[in-house]
Amino acid sequence: MGLLNKMFGRSTKEEEIMTPEKLKIGIILGSTRQGRVSPQVGEWIKGIADKRGEANYEIVDIADYNLPFLGTTDGTEPGIAAWNEKLANLDGFVFIVQEYNHSITGALKNALDFAREGWNNKAAGIVSYGSTGGARAAEHLRGIMGELMIADVRVHPTLSLFTDFENGTEFKPAELHLDNVNAMLDQVIAWSGALKTLR
Ligand SMILES: Cc1cc2nc3c(=O)[nH]c(=O)nc-3n(C[C@H](O)[C@H](O)[C@H](O)COP(=O)(O)O)c2cc1C
């Protein structure tokens, strides 16, 4: 409610259109195993993203939802509904992807399979890691995203288990990745905003 509102009697709806809500972007941790490094990578992305301030970023940890293996239960576990509700409330995603046997983790595939509308007409970026930067896993994820109607952006930071992690466990990213992460976020924000108009 501002001065203009008082002077011209603008409705709340009009004002909402003029000052849209910030986009909500989920940073999805793709691994769930004990000892995983994905939380370190996710927090690093969140730190960079929060400094930009143009959207609300949050870490979304698949492990928190205790999803069963798809089709092995009657589907009434509260985590399944909570997972779908979380996705429904997000406008875009950054997937933290690790390479397991040249693909994404079973946990991430299962979590992807557990939703449909929650993914549709949203944008996503990928940050991957592995011996070859997780590139093979990331390319598999792009194919899956096509089916789920997630628009995957081009810029893709790839982290090396050899040079961006100490002993493969302590995350120490090289400086050079920063520009790429920001470029990826630029694209995720642009497309998340554009696709919001379709939903
Ligand atoms: C089951 C399994 C398979 C893996 N296969 C690959 C692989 O094909 N290529 C690769 O670069 N790294 C592979 N790795 C190494 C992982 O990328 C590395 O352990 C990474 O830290 C896993 O991510 P996380 O710590 O978040 O679970 C594999 C690891 C596991 C546990």
CATH superfamily: Flavodoxin domain
- Mean pLDDT comes to 93
Radius of gyration, Cα only, in angstroms? 18 Å
Distance between the termini: 27 Å
Major sheet attributes: 6 strands, parallel
Question: How does the helix and strand content classify structurally?
Answer: alpha/beta
**Name of the top-level CATH class:** Alpha Beta
Tell me what the CATH architecture is.
Answer: 3-Layer(aba) Sandwich
Distinct small molecules? flavin mononucleotide
Number of domains: 1
Tell me what the structure shows.
This protein is an alpha/beta fold. The protein has one domain (22-196): Flavodoxin domain (Rossmann fold, 3-Layer(aba) Sandwich), CATH 3.40.50. It is 40% helix and 20% strand. The chain contains seven helices and eight strands. The protein has helices at residues 3-8, 12-18, 38-52, 78-88, 106-113, 135-147, 177-196; strands at residues 23-29, 55-61, 92-98, 122-130, 150-152, 158-160, 165-166, 170-171. The strands form two sheets. Strands 1, 2, 3, 4, 5 and 6 form a six-stranded parallel beta sheet that branches. The longest helix is centred in the C-terminal third of the chain and has 20 residues, at 177-196. The two termini are 27 Å apart. The model has no long low-confidence stretch (mean pLDDT 93).
